[in-house]
């Protein structure tokens, strides 16, 4: 056996095993356990959580890559995916909010909007740096954690520690910045139609920029 054959033998990967039987078994176990607890709502949440996890895993959808890939590789496919997700979320949120008003419910106004402050900006920057270093956002970390990636096991531990530390720090940081935050709810200023037009115009502009950026960097807009 020559050296080349030995290298090929050592680097040969094990055959891929389908994880579908394990997924079906886990889903069945979750359903049975939920009914054992007599909590149908909990079963529903678990099933949706499992389905969402499968979608994330199969699509490799990751918010980190959506902001990282345009800089590192020039690809904006995930960036455009995030923009489409925001568009769908906008339609759904508007339908629910408008339906609530038509049925005599409470108008969802600025009181329901989480205000923006320096804490939000600082937290976003810190989290952005951390998720690039860790190789994934919260959803990406959980997805790769389940796949067995060692780095994400470490990231998950510090993700929990950071969340606890952040919740503790908010107790004394939020009162300091409470008078330096603001909130805006577009339908109150532009109306429902105006808010939708403004929102989708921004999304469309960003989508076109993402397409042109990818074509400039890698010569393809797919």
Number of separate structural domains:
3
Report how far the terminal alpha carbons are from each other.
45 Å
Low-confidence stretches: none
On the 0 to 100 scale, the average pLDDT is 78
> Quaternary status of these chains?
single chain
InterPro entries: Sulf_transp_TsuA/YedE
Pfam families: Sulf_transp
Keywords: Membrane, Transmembrane, Transmembrane helix
Protein name: YeeE/YedE family protein
Give keywords.
9 helices, single chain, globular, YeeE/YedE family protein, 77% helix, mainly alpha, 222 residues, membrane, transmembrane, 3 domains, transmembrane helix, Sulf_transp_TsuA/YedE
Present the secondary structure layout:
Layout: H1 3-11, H2 20-36, H3 40-59, H4 63-72, H5 77-102, H6 118-134, H7 138-147, H8 150-177, H9 186-218
Helix pairs in contact: 2-3, 4-5, 5-9, 7-8
Brief summary of the model shown:
It contains nine helices and no strands. With 222 residues, the chain is mainly α.
Account of the 3D structure:
With 222 residues, the protein is mainly alpha-helical. Helix content is 77%, strand content 0%. α2 (20-36) packs antiparallel against α3, α5 runs antiparallel to α9 and α7 (138-147) runs antiparallel to α8. It starts with a helix and ends with a helix. The model has no long low-confidence stretch (mean pLDDT 78).
